[in-house]
Design a protein that fits this description.
Layout: H1 2-19, H2 38-52, H3 55-68, H4 101-114, H5 121-135, E1 150-151, H6 157-163, H7 171-179, H8 185-192, E2 199-201, H9 202-205, H10 216-225, E3 235-237, H11 249-255, H12 262-269, H13 273-283, H14 285-299, E4 310-311, H15 322-331
Antiparallel strand pairs: 1-4, 2-3
Helix pairs in contact: 1-15, 2-4, 2-5, 3-5, 8-13, 8-14, 11-13, 13-14
GO cellular component, one term: plant-type cell wall
Enzyme class: oxidoreductase
Protein name: Peroxidase
Length: about 325
């Protein structure tokens, strides 16, 4: 009888780990009782990571974005490849580009010590996104809704390629990409503002040197920085003025024709409501910050496809080992 009760208890624990994943509503107090130190723990880890490398703030912001745009905010971008499943990390938009996995791992380890089997990797991505932006200049520190769960599988590579916006997108393709996620023009312009602390490879800079919306003198400078003799993987700041500060200089740059990639510059060089929004954000940083926060929360609520199996991963790189767990239950 005792062994039955023990086995049942373990089974109930595992069922809770999986079945609670169907909860739809995200709440800012989701971990108030189960992991009250989540904010201080994550903030400390983000501060350490950004102090070591300023670029890490941009990397962690991008990681959450790339996760949410592909099958919803489910931490699938963190999964490693296994037989029969390729990791999203090796899809062309992410390969040798998406990064920050070690920082997420450090946060997960710290949270597992404080509150084991409680905080999902998808939620870690969401709060790391917020704290990274705040660490380099975003104000105020907005409340992050929690309650996301982790997928058991990565999205197919073809799906990653389809869902993520590309640097060569024109304005209509950008709008369609965001509309597919139920995000509008204000969301498009605001979330693009994360490029105020972004980096891009010279291989992409070279693709847009002849785009019509770019300032001629600026093109010459870019051509010098990313000359043919420069390694294609050399990184170039997307904001040459304040590359490590989260501010509205990105939009000011676009109005001067100093957008480095096409998907940035078209926000200003093509006519439409997006151009008016870009102008507003260039003139009023407070409006940009307010909309960035609103759009980030909205993006963070993109749901995985209905019926997707999910859980709270114990290791962000792999789904929980069910066969091993079942053996433990059987022994009990």
């Amino acid at each position: 009888m005792a062994s039955f009760r023990a086995g049942a208890a373990v089974s109930l624990c595992l069922m809770t780990l999986v079945t609670m994943l169907s909860v739809d509503a995200l709440t800012t107090d989701f971990y108030a009782k189960s992991c009250p130190r989540i904010h201080s723990i994550v903030k400390a880890e983000i501060k350490k990571a950004v102090n070591v490398e300023k670029r890490m703030a941009a990397s962690l912001i991008r990681l959450h974005f790339h996760d949410c745009f592909v099958h919803g905010c489910d931490g699938s971008i963190l999964l490693d490849s296994i037989p029969g499943m390729d990791s999203e990390k090796f899809a062309p938009p992410n390969d040798r580009s998406a990064r920050g996995y070690e920082a997420i791992d450090a946060i997960k380890v710290a949270l597992e010590k404080a509150c084991p089997r409680t905080v999902s990797c998808a939620d870690i991505l969401a709060i790391a996104y917020r704290d990274s932006a705040v660490e380099v200049g975003l104000v105020p520190e907005y409340p992050v809704p929690f309650g996301r769960r982790d997928s058991l599988r990565a999205a197919p590579i073809a799906e990653v390629n389809l869902r993520l916006p590309g640097p060569d997108f024109d304005i209509s393709t950008l709008k369609a990409s965001f509309a597919n996620q139920s995000l509008d023009e204000r969301d498009l312009v605001a979330l693009s503002g994360a490029h105020t602390i972004g980096r891009v490879r010279c291989q992409f800079v070279r693709l847009f040197l002849n785009d019509p919306g770019t300032n001629a003198d600026f093109k010459k400078e870019l051509a010098r920085l990313c000359a043919p003799t420069v390694d294609a993987f050399t990184l170039q700041n997307l904001d040459l003025k304040t590359p490590d500060k989260f501010d509205n200089n990105y939009y000011k740059n676009l109005r001067r024709g100093e957008g480095i990639i096409r998907s940035d510059q078209v926000l200003w060089s093509s006519e439409g409501t997006h151009q008016k929004i870009t102008k507003d954000f260039a003139e009023n940083q407070e409006n940009f910050f307010r909309q960035f926060i609103e759009s980030s929360i909205k993006m963070g609520k993109i749901k995985p496809p209905p019926g997707s199996p999910s859980e709270i991963r114990l290791n962000c790189h792999q789904a929980n080992p069910r066969p091993l767990i079942e053996q433990v239950v059987a022994v009990e």
